[in-house]
Structure formats: C-alpha cells, structure tokens
Amino acid sequence: MAIKMIIDTDPGIDDAMALFYAIADPAIDLLALTTVFGNVTTAQATRNALFLLKTAGVDVPVAQGSSQPRKLPAFPPSAHVHGSEGFGTLQVPKQTAQVIPESAQEFLVRMARKHKGELVLCAIGPLTNIAAALDIDPEFCRNLKRIVIMGGSLGAGGNITTAAEANIYHDPHAADFVFRKGCNITLVGLDVTNQVICPRSYFAQLATQSPKLGGLLHKMADFYIDFYETVGKFEGCGMHDPSALIACSTPELFVTEDHKLRVICSGDRSGETVSDQNLAAEAVKVCVGVNISLVKQKFFENVAKLK
Ligand code: BDR
Ligand code: CA
User: Fold this and answer.
1) Computed over its alpha carbons, how large is the radius of gyration of the chain?
2) pTM for this predicted structure
3) 239 ligand 1 Cβ < 6 A
4) How many domains does the chain have?
C-alpha cells in the first residue's frame, strides 16, 4: 500500500523537484501540502505550492503555516539561491485556488490523529510548523508513522553558514525542540544530499522525456545551478529535498546512524546540528551514506513519466 504523506515545504526549486517526485512515485499517496517560510516568504510558499499542484493537475489541500521562526525575527528569503519568487527567473502568477481555512499546524495535528500510525510527514523546510503542531498536541509525533526531515549536517559543514544547513538555520529553536521530543525522525542532511549532485545535462534529458513538468524543472535548475557554480564546489545542484522524498519511499538506498541531536541556537554556530550522546532524548536516524546513482536514477525514472 502506498505511504500516506504530507509534505511541509517552502517552495523553492528543489522543493518543486521533491513535489513532482512525490506525485510521480506510485509508492507515495500525497494527501496534502503545508507551507512555511525559508526559501521564500510563507505567502510566496503558499502561492508556489498552489502553482505547482495546478501545473501538475493534482488536487490536494494546502494549509498555510507560520510566517516567522519560533523565537527569532523573520529572515530575508534566499533569493540568490532560489530567485526572488522561489523558482529562479520564473514569474509565478497569483493563484485562484485557496488554502484551507485551517492553519498548517492545526491541520497536521488533525491529520495525524485521523491517520494514526500511518501518516509520514516529510519536512523539507524549517521545522516551525512541526514544533507548533507539538505545542498544540504533545502526542502529535506519536500519532505519525515517522518524520523524514531534510536538514542538518553531522560532518559535511553548512550551506548557509560554515556551520549550519539552511532549514535548521532558519529556525534553530524549532529544530532543537523537535529533535528532543521523542519523534521517530530520519534526518536526510548535507552528509548525503551534498553527494547527490545533478548537472545541467541531467535536467536537459529530463525535459526531453517530460516536456511540461520536467521542462519546468529544467528551467528552474538552470538558476539553481548558477548559484551552485558560485560556491565553486559542485558541478550541478544538490538534490536536497528530492533525496528526502526518496528516503521516505526507498529507505534501503540510505545508510543511517543513531544520534541524539541538539541544535546550537545563538552565536556564529547558530543552526549547527550537534550529536550529543549525553542528551536525554531519543536518537534520530541520521543518514550518513547514500546510493548516489540509484537515487538519481529513481528520481529521473519517476519524474520522466510525468506528462
Ligand atoms: C534546504 O534548504 C533549502 O534551500 C532547500 O529547499 C532545502 O530544503 C537545503 O539546505
Ligand atoms: Ca526546501
């Protein structure tokens, strides 16, 4: 049976890749999207989520989430990475479809209760909505099957600062709170996603197989890869969020280690994820190894089918 899934997202170029992957993979039954700030503002994230669903012809509810971090003031969006509207140079039209009249956090709590033990939450933005859902219902996590999070780094350093990965950096207090709450978490961080790098030719080929949706990703990826080239370390872009989706449906492509995690919440190292075996917290399954070629192949094979 397909995995019942909600994706919490800040679309974002690699979020768009992840969403199209989720739509394409028959092992995933996408129930809804919830939105959060990060790559863009929350209002833009919601508009972008509605746009992606409409473009893909998929009708699932979208619930809008928090518009600022748990304790910190709002950050400016990452326009140099994802473009001023989130999708490179694409101008995203205002959407006529509406969000549901329930906040992301209330919706997540309700859906976790409704699908008790069956729902997988894949969080590919800052963890603000997840922390807020735990505020409403301390049993929230226990009602989920598991949470798969794109975020953090154990040994790979950061991507927004030298120490921090972007999703954790944007709301370190939320991440620290969630990591200590005894949730069944798999963390797909930079230790693996920095290894899954796809060049321009990969997206060009995808566009020939799937001209509409693959073609859209190809256009967006061009901007994203321009950014990666400025970093100078990669020839192509990191498949961060799609890797988290693939870890939901095909966990055997990843190697995990158990780590109790905390997050540094201030100073130069704010947003750094730290393994600390002395913590009174449940261990997180941190991905430390990945079958790079099969992850790339799986993404391509599935998204190439999309009309
Ligand atoms: C993560 O941060 C965002 O820029 C991406 O969408 C991804 O979720 C990578 O660090
Ligand atoms: Ca994201």
Assistant:
1) 17
2) 0.98
3) no
4) 1
